[in-house]
Amino acid sequence: MANGSDTRTMLDLETSLNEVLDTGCEHFAGRFYWTLLDRYPDLEPFFHGVNMQHQAAMLTMALQLVVQHHHQPRRSHRDYLRAIGERHTARGIARAHYEAFEDTLLAVLAEFHHDNWHDSLADEWRNAVRKAIEMMLS
C-alpha cells in the first residue's frame, strides 16, 4: 500500500467476518461446503441427512465465535467450542478433518475477498481458526 494509487481495502479479521455475514449465511456457506466436498470427497458421509440450511447458519455462527474467541476469549466461548468439539468427535471427525476445514475456509475467504485478501489477513484467520480448533480438541 505504499503506492498511493493502490485502492484496495486492507481488511482486518472483523471486517472480513462482517463482509461474509453481510452476504448471508447461505451464500458463503454454500460455497464453503461445495469447495470442502470437492477438495475432500471423503468427508461427504458426514453430511448425509444434514440440513444444509441449518448447517450454513451454524457455520456463520461458528465463524463469529472463532473471531470473538480469538480477540477476547471467554469461558463461554471455551465451553461452547469444547461442546462443538465433543459433538464432532462423537460423529467421528478427526484432527485431519479440521485441517481440511481450515484449508478450505482460507481458500474460500481468499476467493470471496478477491483483491482485498492479503497475507496478514490470511494469518489472522489461520491463527483464529487454529486457536478455536485447539479448544475444540481439548
Write structural notes for this entry.
It contains six helices and no strands. Helix content is 72%, strand content 0%. The protein is globular and about 40 Å long. The N and C termini lie far apart (40 Å). The chain has a single domain, classed as Globins (Globin-like, Orthogonal Bundle), CATH 1.10.490.10. By secondary structure, it is mainly α. Helix 4 (75-90) packs across helix 6 (119-137) and helix 5 (95-113) packs antiparallel against helix 6. It has helices at residues 13-22, 25-39, 52-71, 75-90, 95-113, 119-137.
What percent of the residues sit in helical stretches (DSSP H or I)? over 70%
Give the strand tally: 0
Oligomer: single chain
Order of helices and strands: HHHHHH
- Estimated share of beta-strand residues: under 5%
What's the short story on this structure?
With 138 residues, the chain is mainly alpha-helical.
Task: Record the SSE blueprint.
Layout: H1 13-22, H2 25-39, H3 52-71, H4 75-90, H5 95-113, H6 119-137
Helix pairs in contact: 1-3, 2-3, 2-5, 3-6, 4-6, 5-6
Main attributes?
138 residues, Globin-like, disordered N terminus, single chain, 0% strand, mainly alpha, 6 helices, globular, 72% helix
